[in-house]
Write a structure and sequence with these properties.
The protein has 419 residues and is of the alpha+beta class. Helix content is 26%, strand content 22%. It contains ten helices and 18 strands. The strands form four sheets. Strands 8-10-11-12-17-18-9 form a seven-stranded antiparallel β-sheet, with no helix packed on it. Strand 13 and strand 14 form a beta hairpin. It is globular, with a radius of gyration of 30 Å. It starts with a strand and ends with a strand.
């Protein structure tokens, strides 16, 4: 007999979740799901859980088993090597009843990455979307996800940031990025490089450890990060936009053919031409490399001055209001726009100020937790009060403040060092 401690919650009856204990007979090959069926059929017919295929294919029976997320149908009780088993629902999702959670938000985040094929071209009637064996091999470990939610529940970022899609979504995005049949694979990065996207992942490897199909979502996220760095140079949409703006590719007209009887260069002249041409090329490269920093010295760094954030938000006393604005920066001769977040604060005297939520420890983006009235860092648990002062380590210094100006109902922000 094995003791099963199951989390119970019925919203129609219970105010708070509780645990019920059941004694279940177990054989050498009995699974956790079979034990739940035994409880349902013999001990308590009101217990609620999800299941379907019983073969680790559908992903319906994902739950927390003795502190680890996985599939109940695939977990052999004897392999747990304990006489006490604790069953709990998936984390980060609303609890409906007992071991059943609301997956609505889970699937909503899945839709963000557009996890379906957007073909480059429609094949002829009765023809398939051709994919080479080599490319299909590259998708191994990316398309086998069964959406059980184990990685989502194990990921701490899914708890800290409600807009973080989750490892399963990034796995699907990476699959479409590598699929040579898909026309929008690389452009899907536009949905993933936001503040709550791939850069929110801190490579804790919890998702990889929890996956019952032994997939590697962390590896997929890291690949997406590398591709995101290359994105500005490889984006098809960017090239199309450049063409629309009048950018043209200069065509090179080949020289006319030699007239009949015209002699070729002598060997000495040929070597001389190659030498001089090579020396000129090296000189041009050096000139280009060293001239760029000199010529672009005056347009480096952040663009200074006031930034119009938009209409002044409604701010309650001692309750920050979040605003998103765009800050521009010169990088390698290009003007790049970065979305930035700030919190507008009003004190008891009615004075308005603004705080940059970038943590001064590792650069994570903090958020305001109204229940404890603190700015919390999602990475290491550091906290700041409403004035940006450190109240819980390890941040070494307070949050930076921004200069505020309100004119005509419009909010303007400026970094203090630019004043």
């Amino acid at each position: 007999m094995v003791e099963f401690k199951v989390l119970r919650f019925d919203p129609d009856v219970d105010k708070e979740p509780r645990y019920d204990v059941f004694q279940v007979p177990v054989e050498s090959d009995t699974t956790v799901l079979e034990c739940l069926f035994y409880i349902l059929e013999n001990l308590d017919s009101s217990i609620a859980y999800r299941c379907s295929c019983r073969a680790a294919v559908c992903g319906s029976c994902g739950m927390k088993i003795n502190g680890r997320y996985g599939l109940a149908c695939r977990t052999i009780v004897k392999n747990l090597k304990t006489k006490k088993v604790v069953l709990e629902p998936l984390a980060h999702l609303p609890l409906l009843k007992d071991l059943v959670v609301d997956m609505t938000d889970f699937y909503r985040k899945y839709e963000i990455v557009e996890p379906y094929l957007i073909p480059k071209e429609i094949p002829q009637e009765n023809k398939e979307f051709y994919q080479s064996k080599k490319n299909r091999k590259e998708l191994d470990g990316l398309v086998e996800c069964i959406l059980c939610g184990s990685c989502y529940a194990a990921c701490t970022m899914c708890s800290w940031d409600p807009d973080f899609p989750g490892p399963f979504a990034f796995l699907a995005a990476d699959a479409k990025l590598k699929d040579d049949r898909d026309a929008e694979g690389r452009e899907r990065l536009l949905n993933l490089i936001s503040e709550s996207g791939i850069w929110r992942c801190h490579t804790e490897l919890r998702c990889t450890d929890a996956c019952p199909k032994e997939l590697r979502p962390t590896e997929a996220v890291n690949h997406l990060k590398r591709q995101a760095v290359l994105y500005p140079f490889m984006s098809q949409k960017k090239n199309e936009l450049k063409e629309q703006e009048g950018g043209k590719v200069r065509s090179i007209t080949p020289p006319p053919p030699s007239a009949p009887g015209e002699s070729l260069l002598e060997r000495r002249s040929f070597l001389k031409t190659v030498f001089l041409g090579g020396a000129g090329l090296v000189a041009a490269v050096f000139a280009g490399v060293f001239s760029v920093p000199l010529l672009s010295k005056g347009v480096r760094g952040w663009v200074k001055g006031w930034i119009n954030v938009g209409a002044m938000p409604e701010v309650d006393v001692n309750k920050p209001a979040e605003v998103i604005y765009e800050r521009k920066k010169w990088e390698k001769g290009r003007l790049v726009t970065y979305p930035k977040r700030a919190y507008v604060v009003k004190n008891e005297k009615g004075e308005i100020s603004a705080i940059d939520p970038t943590c001064t420890h590792l650069g994570c983006i903090c958020y305001w937790e109204d229940s404890i009235r603190k700015f919390m860092c999602p990475c290491h648990g550091g906290a700041f009060d409403i004035d940006g002062k450190v109240v819980v380590g390890p941040p070494p210094r307070p949050l930076e403040r921004l200069e505020v100006k309100v004119e005509g109902g419009e909010l303007y922000l400026r970094n203090l060092e630019e004043a």
